[in-house]
Amino acid sequence: QVQLVESGGGLVQAGGSLRLSCAASGSIFSINVMGWYRQAPGKQRELVAAITSGGSPTYADSVKGRFTISRDNAKDTVYLQMSSLKPEDTAVYYCNVVYPTYGVNYWGKGTLVTVSS
Q1: pLDDT tens, position by position, 3-53
Q2: N or C: lower Cβ tally within 10 Å for the chain?
Q3: Are the CB atoms for 73 and 42 separated by under 8 Å?
Q4: How far apart are the first and last CA of the chain?
Q5: How far apart are CA 114 and CA 85, in angstroms?
Q6: DSSP characters over 10-25
Q7: Which of the 8 DSSP states describes residue 36?
Q8: How many H-runs (helices) and E-runs (strands) does the chain carry?
């Protein structure tokens, strides 16, 4: 089992910045993909950004140039630096880790990000 704990959400004005963190603990294997998803009210959960254990990132078009994903493998932690936030970025942000070798993935409980206009 793997436990994911997110932190860093909150209320911010449009144009502001926030940094989310997600720390993994438990039965962690080195080859994985860690990512951030978000779910706004009434909408489906969507991928925001993901990063492989080798450091290759992927971003949703809607956040390219504004968000940066990074990870610290020594701390089993993934970060999401969010800048130039927009009201449409308001959502619950979920951390996810995928272990392709084993075909399993885990989710955090989510952290709320609210961007006021």
Answers
A1: 999 999 999 999 999 999 999 988 777 778 999 999 999 999 999 999 999
A2: N
A3: no
A4: 40
A5: 9
A6: EEEETT--EEEEEEEE
A7: E
A8: 0, 11
